[in-house]
Write a structure and sequence with these properties.
The chain is α/β, with parallel strands linked by helices. The protein contains 12 helices and 12 strands.
Length: 391
């Protein structure tokens, strides 16, 4: 799916706040009220709710509310009803297409993005004369409250993929809370896959000036998180498309040091994706869908992650598209051999940390997987994919 932005008539003095929703009936009215309460009186703003046909009647609740309250001191509200759940990025684009303002703010409706930050985003756009301002969890002064260790690890991995694999320079490219000048979207064809449209803008729009300001992300109190396995899959699809987009624009790099570091970044980005596969399969089998002994579950996770890592490294890191059976089997054998060395280290560390030091299995698993990655890049670069080590 590719979507281009057809701009409607814009009001240079108005701010349009886009709020995508799906099953947010317990939050939506309060967030609309809170936005109005926190907007400075000198700002003309509209809030546009984009609802994906929520089964909990979020859209109907907003309709009823708007019948009674349509405008409050320069603050108007509107809603877009979509017929199906078509994705967060797509919902945001629908809202932007309806928006009248020259300044766009994107935020969630569950109070994880405090409405009190909106004036700071708008003020920073003007004061720093930039094109975009991102509310960041990962710069000094920013933080996250209420996340589990698993959620924090997933966020960090997604951020590392964006920064190392896609070349994004911002500290929090996965933020869902940001403001920008609407005109920067001209010329962008959006794929609208996944849930982070910010990342697509950062990759596809070169030359824009970006500022980050700190904020505290508060985990939702009402409703349930939308993060599930399909969200993770969509993220990897999106990252792959954005990587191909960037690769089509980059020039051939001849400096050996840059080529070495670039491929190393790809290799470890793939390693991080393998870490996600390994981690969640192991946890799923050791107490999720089955009760395998934790070492057996860890072994299954290792096998699956080695296979996915091989395929991604062959096609992405080392640009090898030759899948002749004999060659591919031989490469896979070498890759498995080198990865197995790391796997032995991983299994030994998990057993030692859990049984000898009574360290929690999830933490032990993290430490073991990261330790096992050491040396794999050099060995596979030289012996599996027949490349010079330096270059």
């Amino acid at each position: 799916m590719s979507e281009s932005m057809d701009m409607v008539a814009q009001d240079n003095n108005q701010v349009s706040i886009i709020i995508p929703t799906y099953n947010e009936s317990r939050n939506i009215i309060q967030i609309l009220k809170s936005i109005g309460e926190n907007l400075p009186k000198n700002i003309s703003a509209e809030a546009i709710v984009v609802d994906d046909n929520s089964p909990d009647s979020t859209g109907k609740i907003v309709d009823e509310y708007l019948k009674n309250v349509k405008k409050i001191a320069g603050y108007t509200m509107d809603i877009i009803h979509r017929t199906s759940k078509s994705g967060l990025s797509s919902a945001i684009l629908s809202g932007i297409q309806r928006a009248k303002g020259d300044t766009i703010v994107v935020m969630d409706s569950d109070f994880s993005h405090p409405p009190q930050i909106i004036p700071k985003l708008i003020e920073s756009l003007k004061n720093y004369q930039c094109d975009m301002v991102i509310a960041s969890r990962y710069i000094k002064g920013g933080k996250i409250n209420g996340w589990t260790l698993k959620r924090k690890i997933m966020s960090k991995i997604a951020t590392l993929i964006a920064k190392k694999g896609l070349g994004v320079k911002t500290k929090d490219p996965m933020s869902g809370f940001f403001a920008f000048k609407k005109n920067i979207l001209k010329g962008i064809n959006f794929d609208a896959i996944g849930y982070k449209i910010l990342l697509e803008i950062l990759v596809k729009k070169s030359g824009i000036v970006v500022k980050e300001i700190p904020y505290t992300f508060e985990n939702r109190n009402l409703g349930s998180s939308k993060l599930d396995s399909s969200t993770v899959i969509d993220y990897f699809k999106s990252a792959w498309k954005l990587y191909k987009f960037g690769k089509s624009k980059e020039k051939e790099e001849k400096r050996s040091s840059v080529k070495f570091l670039s491929k190393a970044a790809r290799f470890y980005t793939v390693g991080l994706s393998g870490f996600v596969v390994n981690y969640f399969i192991a946890l799923l089998l050791a107490g999720g869908i089955s009760d395998l002994w934790y070492l057996h579950a860890n072994l299954v996770g290792i096998v699956v992650s080695i296979t996915t890592n091989f395929l991604l490294n062959k096609t992405w890191t080392f640009d090898d598209r030759d899948f002749a059976a004999k060659k591919t089997i031989k490469q896979y054998g070498k890759f498995v051999t080198f990865s197995s060395l790391g796997a032995l280290v991983q299994l030994g560390m998990v057993f030692y940390l859990v049984d000898q030091y009574q360290l929690g299995y999830p933490i032990a698993l993290v430490l073991a997987v990261l330790s096992a990655a050491f040396g794999n890049y050099i060995l596979n670069k030289k012996f599996t994919f027949k490349e010079k080590v330096w270059g």
